[in-house]
Amino acid sequence: MIVFSALCMISALIAFEGSIAVLRLNRRRLINIIYSIFALDYMLVCLFFNQYVTSPDHDTALFWNRMLVFPASFYPSIMLHFAMILISKNERLMYNWLIPFIYLPSFLIGLVAVLGKSIQDVFHTPWGWENYSSPSNFWLNISFVVFILLCVGSFMLVLYRYKKPFSERKKKQLRPIMYSQLIGTIGWVLSLGLYYTGSGVLQSLVSNLAFLIIVTPLLIGVRVAIFKYHLMVLAPDRYAAELISGIDEPVFLLDMQGEVMFQNPCAGRLAKYAEIKEPYSICSLFHCGERMQKELEDMVHGNNTGSALHVTIKCLEKPRSSYVLQIQGVKNEIDEYIGAVCVATKEQTLEGFQERFGITPRETDVLYLSVAGFTNKEIARELNISIRTVEHHHENIYNKLGINNKLELHNISLKYRIISGKD
HTH luxR-type domain location, by residue (predicted)? Predict the structure, then answer.
């Protein structure tokens, strides 16, 4: 009993430390949030389980048993959810409609257990209290089948991505998690098999130990992946954050999908001005969608290390300003691009240009995209307007500037320093 209690407290401590650690690394990414919830859920169950096995009497043991079975029933579902995010190239493009179907079985199984349909009673053993239920119990067998399917499913997803990784770094990150999940899955299957042997020792002692070795290896595996291969890490450390915060221009730290992972106070004020709520992507703040994606993709393929984009801020009901986005790729220790630093410098020449020729903010948006090589169809999609409206804006721009083609538009943009020579 003392051994069980010690193992429970150690497992709870590991879970709590892991939950806090991943949120400190990055509290905005979905994978970090899901893992933190998983670890906290496991911590609660370990604490409840400790109270359960050390209960002084039957009624107290039954109470703590009912307390722990409901959160414990969510283990496999959260593990599968975590695996789905872990193997995805872009966690925001997951099949979100599947999520309710992942958690619904666990919810129903937990509810049935709380009502005493699957775990009917508890009894005392030399190693503490143990669950009592008939091996022929319908709800118990259904619970076991669902748990095994979810556990094996999450392991197979990780194994699949390990065999076909996006990169060598991703493969290294998945290796300790795959092995730890394999240990947990084998432990789970063995514990269920031993439950049907009818042996009191195997049903109580082994099942209790198996309970602790199902999830704890996964927590340890994730911690190894974080420490050694920087899993779930694209957040600046404290000193880098303080340095970026001191820059008197909007600075954004992006992941390779263009999502803003960190911003300094100036960038926060700019997002607030544009009425953009966190979390957000750089393309929801500036008109730079396809151009930004192309720059980041070129970095991934080694065709680009940095660039500059001329953009305007997205404000429908407020005066819009023009910015130059200076983009610089960020590499990890194995020379792979994991993100980008983006500094937004306000262009002072635009306001005089607009005032002199009477160019509206929307026409400025069209002008930038036009000289960047976008077709009318692409401009319409980028600005969410019709192609006819784009043509109308082009006609107005040409009339106001006294030109009649895109080459002259590009030249006059260079003349008034609206764009730089390399654009």
Answer: 352-417
